[in-house]
Specification:
Length: 171
Amino acid sequence: MSGFTYTEWGFTRDGSWPEGYRRVHHRIVVGVGWEAYRRLADGILTWGLQRGAGLQVGAVRAAVGIRVVSRVRLGPLHLDAPCRVVWVEEPDGEGRPQRAGFAYGTLPGHPEQGEEAFIAELTADGLVHVEIRAFSRHANWFYRAGAPVAVLSQWLITRRYLAAARRLAQG
């Protein structure tokens, strides 16, 4: 794949972490049963976590290779974050256990360099988990200078993703 601002494509798929990046990893139970899983998986694959966290996203459904720009608004200001989808897993029938989700990687113009994955999982005991995996570092000196704000922003948006996942799973 080309155009990415980092070289470690796909590391989020199996949960491995490249060196030299900040890591984010959250996995929580958000529901029980097939219907909750299906709602969460469909919501993740149609950018429901991002929209539920207050981001504007122009994409319809995650697919490998599509380019998407997430936009964060702060009053009259906005910050665009261009990314490309690196991998996708679709739901697989009604059996369990299974997982679905996707990851996107940063493109030039994004304030960070790295990858972020959003995964819905239905375990053998019927629990529905959402998992967020990310590795990132600041894209340039400007964002490194504002590192505390950038790290706080990532923490806040991750909390919003988790809250959106709970809402999606509950219907």
